[in-house]
Design brief:
Low-confidence stretches: 1-5
Distance between the termini: 35 Å
Number of domains: 2
Shape: globular
Protein name: FemAB family PEP-CTERM system-associated protein
Organism: Sphingomonas olei
CATH class of the largest domain: Alpha Beta
CATH topology of the largest domain: Aminopeptidase
Number of helices: 12
Strand content: 25-35%
CATH architecture of the largest domain: 3-Layer(aba) Sandwich
Mean pLDDT: 91
Structural class: alpha+beta
InterPro entries: Acyl_CoA_acyltransferase (IPR016181), BioF2-like_GNAT_dom (IPR038740), PEP-CTERM_FemAB-rel (IPR017469), PG_Glycine_Bridge_Synth (IPR050644)
Order of helices and strands: EHHEEEEHEEEHHEHHEEEHHEHEEHH
């Protein structure tokens, strides 16, 4: 048994806060086959800087060698309560590697009433949910022609039509951040969701392997997506379109162009992200030839757990009302609310 900053644990595993060990943590993450970009220190630090929620990293060691990692974000919100989340504002996270039991125990000991793990093994005694969310990922095809054939017939026809439209596709970084944010803010307002702080996007662009792909019509952005790239996988993460995008098939053009862009970057897989089971976004991704795989999230709570799922009936009135807000007002107020969602 070994004693550490977060207490004694069995099996000669020491769990401690890893402060100032970014390079060591990122080296562990990049070498692990189950890692995601949300395990990287850059993700947690982008959330910390962009949303003001404290990040921390618990590591498990055996004989001085790192064997496990748990990135955490301390979510504190007057509207949604407090929780430790792995990983904050992400669709993945959870324990990476070994040491699930001591890492989970150390997280519980940090004083938050609830701990949420998005992926990874489920600690003994924790509740788990495998029915709320689906993940969508598959290999990229060899070229555009093969990619079209990988898309089911009905959606393939929509993509082909988008390729004949007078749409311009551009890619870049921070120089595209302004128009990306305008498109994304309108898109989520139309869905009844508060937009995230703009700084979250700029921090992610600065700290992670990422870029923006934007589709313009007559010189104006109508669809845009900020994507992450990690270990050969493209993650289109924050994407959306204006009201005009649907008729223009700009979203179809955007994702097909992103697949080609990802191949050019050397990616072999495309992770379309998660969607709530039984929703329109889940059906959209299935229409592209992606099969939904249940995602397992784990939770421990000391009392009532926080609830941030927008499909919860108690939020229905709020969602309907948010859709009707003037866009400037929604963009102004949204970040104050969304920084506590995580």
């Amino acid at each position: 048994m070994v004693s550490g900053a977060l207490g004694a644990v069995a099996d000669r595993v020491l769990v401690r806060d890893a402060v100032g060990e970014d390079e060591r943590i990122d080296a562990f993450v990049r070498a692990h086959p189950n890692a995601t970009p949300f395990h990287l220190t850059g993700w947690t630090k982008a959330v910390e800087a962009g949303c003001g929620q404290r990040g921390r990293f618990l590591i498990a060691e055996r004989d001085g060698v790192m064997i496990g990692l748990l990135p955490l974000t301390e979510m504190r919100s007057p509207l949604f309560g407090k929780a430790l989340v792995s990983a904050g504002f992400a669709v993945g996270g959870g324990v990476l590697g070994e040491g699930t039991r001591p890492l989970a125990a150390a997280a519980r000991a940090l004083g938050c009433p609830s701990v949420e793990l998005r992926g990874g093994p489920v600690p003994d005694g924790w509740s788990s949910d495998s029915s709320s969310y689906l993940g969508f990922a598959r290999p990229l095809a060899a070229d555009d022609d093969a990619e079209l054939l990988a898309i089911p017939r009905k959606q393939r026809a929509e993509v082909r039509k988008s390729l004949t439209s007078d749409l311009e596709v551009v890619t870049g970084g921070a120089e595209l951040a302004g128009e990306h944010y305008r498109v994304y803010a309108e898109s989520v307002r139309n869905l009844g969701t508060p937009v995230f702080p703009r700084r979250l996007f700029t921090e992610a662009l600065a700290r992670l392997d990422s870029d923006i792909l934007t589709v313009r019509w007559q010189g104006r952005a109508v669809a845009s997506v900020l994507s992450l790239y990690f270990n050969g996988v493209a993650y289109p993460f924050w994407g959306g379109g204006t009201v005009a995008a649907r008729a223009l098939r700009a979203n179809d053009r955007m994702y097909f162009a992103l697949m080609a862009h990802a191949r050019a970057r050397g990616c072999t897989h495309f992770d379309f992200g998660r969607s709530k089971t039984g929703t329109g976004p889940a059906a959209f991704k299935k229409n592209w030839g992606f099969e939904g795989v249940p995602l397992t999230y784990a939770r421990w709570s000391d009392g009532p757990a926080r609830e941030v799922n927008p499909l919860n009936p108690k939020y229905a009135l709020m969602v309907r009302g948010w859709k009707k807000l003037p866009l400037p007002l929604a963009t102004l107020v949204g970040p104050w609310i969304s920084r506590g969602l995580g």
